[in-house]
Structure formats: structure tokens, C-alpha cells
């Protein structure tokens, strides 16, 4: 069978076998391609879906994208059970095995360095939401009681606004405190851009969307810390996802090529692209 | 390891990582990051339209 090569991750050789029923993005079982002492986890994908042109069109198809993302994640999950994989960005595709080998040769120093940094660690995602205020959500713009005068009305509005601001201030305080506490147990952290509620479908507004790189042997403690924060403040929801492979920590300098959304929190020095052109 | 919540991973969390995280390698089939960002924008519209049938309980209050 020909076809293209889809690469999920690079890792160090590991003893265990992958589950035999594991299937990759196009239903093909992932194989281990050993080269220069590193393993690329690869499966065959058809050119009809994964050539450049086809892929661009396919990625716009939400059902296809979702199925592919879940299949990709399944392989990464299976790898995470047996080793610490360095996950590649979704849809990294090569013509053939020799293309994959060349890629390993070109990047092997990077890979080893990053694999060392990630060794024995997983990523946890923590999001903090401010829940919709039940009262004002029920009656968005109306004052609670009939306003006797314009001044009353304005005062009631002001009180409502203040209640929202309080909630916000509490949420931001909690988020900052939680981030600080969790960071103390993490080897690295990333602040992602808050998720758009329309995109996530999650209730409430996302005020913290952070990723933490945590040693496996500290993870239980880390999860308990998040768990404890959950009931701290009413109206504020804390969500935990993971353990993930270290997707958010796979790049050497994330500020450079990762999603620019994270920059709004002021991560990373802005100097890089500054002084060009004269 | 204790796993507190083992729900199916939300697509948005998954895509946050798969499309924005991971090592970026120029493969033989190259979708540049810029292309993927474009996809994300379209995706935004797509998912919003899907979710429009199930409105979020949160209303913009500003």
C-alpha cells in the first residue's frame, strides 16, 4: 500500500507495545519508524484526503476535522501511557518514509532537547469561568423593582453593575491566586487566550485558560489543588482537563510561532521582529 | 493517578492543542501556520453556527 505518511509524534524508543487495535487518522494502525535513535510514530493516509489541496479543503469540514483530531489524539493518548511523546502539530504529512527520516535528521538535536525537557511530565489544562449571574441573566436590562424615579433607576443600575464588577474582580483574583498556586507545582506554564464562549459552548465567561507542565509524580497533588479550588468561590467555575501530552510545551520558544492569542497577556518579549527594514 | 473528570474532551480544547500546540515541522505537505490560522477563523464561524441552535445560557452583559 502506498499513500502518504502522517506523523503523530516523535519519542525515544520505548519497551512496551502499542495496543494492537489502535487505529490512526485514516483507520490505519500507527507504526514506529526508528531512525537515529528516535522513533517517529507514523501511519499511512490516502492522498485523496491528505495531499496539500485536499487537506486544505478537508480542514474546513468540521466533521472531518473533529474525527481526525480525535483519531490523532487517540494515538497520542496511547503513546502517553507508555512514554513521554513529543506531539507534532496536527496534519504533519510526508510523501514517504524517507521524507520522515530526513525530517528526523534535520531536527534531531531539537527533538532530544525538548524530549529531555518534557521527560516524565504531562500537561494539565485549567480554565476558570465566571458563571452568568442568575438574577441579571433572567432579566438582563430591567431593574429588580419598579424605579420610583430616574434617580432610583440609575442607582439600581449602578448597583447591578457593581455586582458584576465584584464578581469579575473576585474571579480575576481567584484566577490569579490559583495560577500562582498551581505554577508552584509546575515546571512550566502557558497562558492561552481565553476561549470564546460561542466556540466552546461553555457557560460563563472564560477568564483563565492556562496549561501547566507537571511531573507525573506530582500530578496527583496538582489535581487535588485544582479540586480544592473548585468550591472556593460561588459563581466561579474551575475546569480541569488532562493529562495531555505536552502539546503546549512542545515548541522551544512558544512566543514566536504559537498562537498569537497568548500574547495579549504579555508573555514573551516583543523585540524579535522589531528592527527590520531600512 | 487520580483523574477527577473523565468526560469526552471538548472539541475546542482538543483543537486548541492540536492546531495551536505541538511541534511545527515543515512536512512534505505543507500547510503553513497562517493557513491553519485561517482555518481557525472559518472554524470559529462554523462552530458558532452549529452552536446557534443551542444558545449559551450566558448573555453578553456589557
From TrEMBL, chain A:
Keywords: Gas vesicle. It is found in: Gas vesicle. Residues 249-278 are annotated as: Disordered. GO terms for biological process: gas vesicle organization. Residues 253-266 have a biased composition (Basic and acidic residues). The keyword Repressor does not apply. One of its GO terms (cellular component) is gas vesicle. InterPro entries: GvpL/GvpF (IPR009430). Belongs to the gas vesicle GvpF/GvpL family. This is GvpL/GvpF family gas vesicle protein. It comes from Streptomyces griseicoloratus. The lineage of its organism: Bacteria, Bacillati, Actinomycetota, Actinomycetes, Kitasatosporales.
Automatic annotation (TrEMBL), chain B:
Pfam families: Gas_vesicle. It comes from Streptomyces griseicoloratus. GO terms for cellular component: gas vesicle; vesicle membrane. Its main location: other. PANTHER family: GAS VESICLE PROTEIN A1 (PTHR35344:SF4), GAS VESICLE STRUCTURAL PROTEIN 2-RELATED (PTHR35344). It comes from the Bacteria. One of its GO terms (molecular function) is structural molecule activity. This is Gas vesicle protein. Keywords: Gas vesicle. It is found in: Gas vesicle. InterPro entries: Gas-vesicle_GvpA-like, GvpA. Belongs to the gas vesicle GvpA family.
